[in-house]
Design a protein that fits this description.
With 258 residues, the chain is an alpha+beta fold. The chain has 2 domains: 162 residues, 60s Ribosomal Protein L30, Chain: A, CATH 3.30.1330; 71 residues, CofE-like domain (CofE-like fold), CATH 3.90.1660.10. α1 crosses α5 and α3 packs across α4. The longest helix has 16 residues. The radius of gyration is 19 Å and the shape is globular. The relative contact order is 0.20.
Length: 258
Amino acid sequence: MVESWLAKSSPIELIPIRGIPEVSNRDEIGQIIIESCRKQGTPIRNNDILVITHKIVSKAEGRVLALSSVTPSKFALNAGRHIGKDPRQVEVILSESRRLVKMVRGLIIAETPHGFVCANAGVDQSNVKKGKVVLLPKKPDKSAQQIRDYIAAKTGKVLAVIISDTFGRAWREGQTDVAIGIAGIVPFVDYRGMRDQYGYDLKATIICIADELASAAELCMNKLDRVPAALIRGYKFKRGENISSRALARKPNRDLFR
């Protein structure tokens, strides 16, 4: 039996949010989004999904670090020489890691305290001034919820918020955006127990729509166009409260690749 909220396929709209200025520590992301949407003639509506790249959230939360302030440890110095990476950046990656998975030339794969396994523990030098790095938000779900609450309070609109980042994928070339923080949306569509058009019972199909929405939004943001946020309109999603993006990270006992 298909759940009542799960609508038939219908068109969705991807709306880039342009005109967002350079974000600094303690800026109010929710207000910036509201104003930018209003100025471009696409004010936020009920049931919109707001996708925001983590970079502007991290900048607003002061998660930007100057490498000149970092003193690398002996391990970071040795590792930096071994893989050809700035040992100061290696030290930052170590401080943002719960577990190192692999180190290869120019790259460290690590598990973050959030449970994400990704390149360089999410520590990134793109879209930030030279000599600085941007870290992941400490609590991206909380960040998403605060932005959602602020927009709801100011506009009266109920929406979902996804904070995204760009991850690589096992066995697949290229990167894609995924959800690292969520608020107001159930991140999965569970088809188990439903029947397909030929009458077969679905036993294993669980679609991570939070990642799919994050990836779809990136198509209209682009890495070089200074568009760090987008609205997705028309997709019928299941609302959910107090759901953590940690649910998106596969538990070790179910991870066949560790």
